[in-house]
Specification:
By secondary structure, the protein is of the alpha/beta class. It has a single domain, classed as P-loop containing nucleotide triphosphate hydrolases (Rossmann fold), CATH 3.40.50.300. The chain is built from 14 helices and five strands. A five-stranded parallel sheet has the order 2-3-1-4-5. Helix 11 packs parallel to helix 14.
């Protein structure tokens, strides 16, 4: 059995050694970038919607080649590193041929960077670099997603405010940041990435931009609640979407779930009102009710 570097790094090494091993692997990957394929698919969003679970479930398929790091963030944060650096994260062409011989089907590979959906420059960068890529979008009740993102930022030590104070501060924190990013592609906005609790939940705004330039058949839209309620069905849909032979019988643990604290009911009610119209627009855009009236 071939040992996958991404699996071994995540399970067998202490954190410090893991970082060192990943850097070394990236250096090797960068030097051999021309021998590595570009991705067939991207999981582009949204953060705190189950992208980690989805990606880890997907790479269990023997014809899916794993990436060195699940979130490469090339088209958002790391674009200046260049295409050879990006290619270095993916399996080699030789590995792809080995998979095809063993599995009787072409290997597909990809990565999951949930910032891509929301990032103002990622869409056009992806379109220019990967014109045929397939895109997977995972969406969750936006109230729960906002609260979960806040919890994550608190756990990471980048958010000192309470949830109520953080969403009150969001308009000032994000003011002008998107324009700065568009005006200067080298500008990194910490606020736009880390403090966009409510803005990221306006899913229709994000998807309308992507649908302007890419046909909808290139997208797989996943409702996170459905994915966790029936992961096997979701993964069978993903396999078909990517042209993979079906695979059954896997266990699907919920990964990267975060803490279990709950949102204040008054804040939740206020956010339900905020998202009522955006959710209606999303339902009309997708042609289905997402059923997010409750938190």
């Amino acid at each position: 059995m071939t040992v996958r570097l991404s699996d071994s790094l995540s399970t067998t090494l202490p954190r410090g050694l893991k970082r060192s091993a990943r850097k070394a692997a990236q250096a090797v990957g960068r030097a051999t970038g021309s021998l590595r394929p570009l991705p067939d698919y991207l999981v582009i969003g949204e953060a705190r919607c189950g992208t980690t679970s989805f990606y880890k479930w997907l790479i269990r398929h023997p014809a899916v080649g794993p990436v060195l790091t699940k979130e490469v963030q090339y088209f958002s944060d790391e674009y200046d590193r260049g295409l050879s650096w990006y290619r270095g994260h993916f399996p080699t062409i030789a590995y792809a041929k080995l998979v095809q011989r063993r599995q009787g089907t072409r290997m597909v590979t990809g990565e999951a960077s949930p910032y891509y959906l929301f990032h103002p420059l990622a869409r056009d960068r992806i379109l220019a670099t990967l014109p045929d890529v397939k895109l997977i979008v995972i969406l969750r009740n936006p109230v729960k997603r906002a609260f979960s993102l806040w919890q994550q930022q608190v756990d990471l030590g980048v958010e000192p405010l309470s949830f109520a104070d953080a969403i009150a501060a969001e308009p000032n924190r994000l003011a002008g940041e998107r324009d700065k990013m568009v005006a200067d592609p080298h500008y990194f906005s910490r606020n736009y990435k880390h403090y966009s609790y409510l803005a990221r939940g306006h899913y229709a705004d994000s998807l309308e931009r992507w649908f302007e330039v890419l046909p909808r058949e290139r997208f797989m839209i996943v409702r996170a609640e459905d994915m966790f309620a029936d992961p096997d069905t979701t993964m069978q849909q993903a396999h078909r979407f990517l042209g993979l032979p079906p695979r059954h019988g896997d266990a699907y643990p919920h990964l990267n779930a975060g803490s279990s604290s709950s949102i204040d009911p008054e804040v939740a009610e206020r956010l339900r009102d905020v998202y009522r119209e955006p959710n209606q627009r999303l339902a009309a855009l997708l042609g289905r009710d997402l059923d997010w009236d409750r938190v």
